[in-house]
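Q: Structure tokens for this one, please.
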Amino acid sequence: MSIVTWIILGLIAGWLASMVSKGSGGVIMDIILGIVGAFVGGFVMNFFGASGVTGFNLYSILVAFIGAVILIAIGRSFSGKKSTNSN
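A: Here is the predicted structure, written as tokens:
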């Protein structure tokens, strides 16, 4: 995949993960989170016997999303931040 494709995939996956995790790191952080999440998600999927990122498709976005959510959870466990409800 080209760098532009990785950025777009990272943006989508990072944005979805930040929406689910109620984070607001901004567009650049979402892109970084999604791209690094693609590597983490690929590693996790390979560990369980599935393929990692396979190109620009829904499966790859899901893999990157899973990795990004894992990264958010790890980051919050080290920083001590908890998600807050607005209710």
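A few notes: The first helix runs from residue 3 to 21. Residues 3-79 form one domain.
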